[in-house]
Each structure stands twice: as C-alpha cells, then as structure tokens.
Amino acid sequence: MTEERRGKRPLFSVAVPFYNEQENLRALYERLCRVVGGVENCDFELLFVDDGSTDASLEIVRALAAQDARVRYLSFSRNFGKEIALSAAIDHARGDGAIFMDADLQHPPELIPKLIEGWFEGYDDVYAQRRTRGGESAFKKLTAKLYYHVLARSTRIPIQMDAGDFRLLSARALAVLRRMPEHQRNMKSLYSWIGFRKKAVPVDQEPRLHGASKFGFFRLLNLALDGITSFTTAPLRLATILGALSAAVALLSFCWFLIRTAVWGNPVPGYPSLFCGILFFGGVQLLGLGVIGEYLGRVFMETKGRPLYVIAESNVTDETPDETLPERKEARHD
C-alpha cells in the first residue's frame, strides 16, 4: 500500500465547515495556499461548507471561488450543525483523501504536510492529537478530558484521546463513512468506529484568530450526550443497574423494619422515612425514563427519513466521488 501510494500524484480535498467566520476565512485561505503550494507531487482542492452563515462568509467564499478554480463550496439553506456540515464535506470530497479542519485557525494549516506524510506511510486516518488547547478555559479543558474518558470507558471500541476533527481520511475511510445514513451524528465517535490504521500527529492547538467559539456550554453538553447515546448503550445499562440496586435497597429496608418491629417492638418510622423513600425512588424512575426517552427520541428522528441537509447554493458539480454515494439523502435547491 505504501509503495502504491508513493507511486502516484494524489488529489486531496481540504474540507472546511464554517458558520459566521467572515473575519477568519481570508486569513485561512492565504495560509492554506502557502501550505499546499509547498507540498510537492500533490494536487489540492479547497472545499468550503457554509452551515447557513448569516454574515458575509458566503460572499467571501464566492469571491475566492471566482479567483481560484481550486475552491469549491456548498451553502446550506439553514444552520444544520457542524456534524452535518462535516458529513456534507465527506459526501462531496474527491480524490485520494480529505483533510478536515476548522475555519477559526485553531487547527494550524502548517500541519497538513505531516498528515499527508502519514497517508503516504499507508495510514487511513491520520489525526491531530492535541498536546495543548490554546484559547480554552480551564473548565472546558477539564470537561473535554472527562468526556473522552467517559466515552472510552463506556464502549469497547478504542477511542482516540484528545483528537478532534482535524485529520486526514483516506478514500476508503470516506467510502465507509458515506454509507452511514444516521441523523444523530457524532463524527469523532464515527472516526473511531470505522477502524482502519490510525496515526496520531501531535499538535498545539492555537487560539482563535478572531471572534468567539460558536459552541457554548449547552451546545457542547448536547454534543456530548449525542456522542454517548449514539455510540453506546451504557446509559441504559446504568439505568438498569440503578433500578436493581434501588429495588434491593427497598427490599432490605422492608426486611429491617419488619424484624426491628417484631423483635424490639419499635414502631415503623412514619412520614419522614416514607417521604424520603418516595422522593428517592421517584427520582430513580424519572432518571430511567429520561435515559429511555433519549434513545427513543433518536429512534423517532431516524424514522422520519428526511434529508440530512439541504443545499441552497453550490459551485460543486453533480459528479459523484470515486465511491458511489449510499442511500443517505440530501436535497438541492440550486
């Protein structure tokens, strides 16, 4: 595989999903041009995916496409979310591999040659592994570390720690991801699920060049819940175990009160113990129902059969990538 890859001139798609990044796009484009211009024996295209931006981001990308034939873009009809934008990039990436990165320049484009070198070595998933997380608060660093550990402990599939979306995926890895039509998506989990040979490339994440992150606490919490519930049934098992333990505690408590009354003649405690017991078991039941509801809600979303995203504007032709697209749905309104 390695010799076969080194004997050809590959084409890579540099895929950049973005939402309201008008202050960063030109700087990103200039740095990308400098980097890819210095990579020998490789061809590149720049694929921008606009996730329904409301600022001048799309106008900037249109202007870049008018002056550079390597620039291709998709623009959604509304904001569908970063995971869906990444899925659209996977659907429309061409060539021998795709490099995914953020538009805020926290992912340094200068790392791209090292990712490509890993591809030449025969790896299908060459991912940037963060040594430092510049521009992030201590709270976000702590919660990110906790999330990765919880996800790793709740599944048997190896999870790449401290790895984000900044990575290079080979053509065959992209082909497998295209065959995954689910709507409730957590791409970091899917990268691990598909397997293949993986290589980590250390990176120091840079602070955002301009603006603030679009991911607040609640959006990150929702992303974490999506990652756990779409990748493992551990929460359901936890609810089952908690219910069994609660039932055991209730049974032991009943036996204790019965023996205590029969032997020592002590009256059974009244309202305080009853009140605490009702609150405890009611809380356990509601927790179990909430966990079941999370999974049931995801089943409901999957059964609707709606398109994964809607493209309002694009300069991408309808030519299909090397591997035929699966039954995943998209809607076009060019």
Automatic annotation (TrEMBL):
Q: Please report the name of this protein according to its UniProt entry.
A: Glycosyltransferase family 2 protein
What are the subcellular locations of this protein?
Cell membrane
Any idea which GO molecular function terms this record carries? glycosyltransferase activity
The organism's place on the tree of life at top rank: Bacteria
Under the heading SUPFAM superfamilies, the entry gives: Nucleotide-diphospho-sugar transferases (SSF53448)
Can you list the GO cellular component terms from the UniProt entry? plasma membrane
User: Which CDD domains did the record assign?
Assistant: DPM1_like_bac (cd04187)
**Source organism (scientific name):** Pyramidobacter porci
Membrane topology annotation: Multi-pass membrane protein
| InterPro entries according to UniProt | Glyco_trans_2-like, Glycosyltransferase_2, Nucleotide-diphossugar_trans
Q: Where are the transmembrane segments?
A: 238-259, 271-296
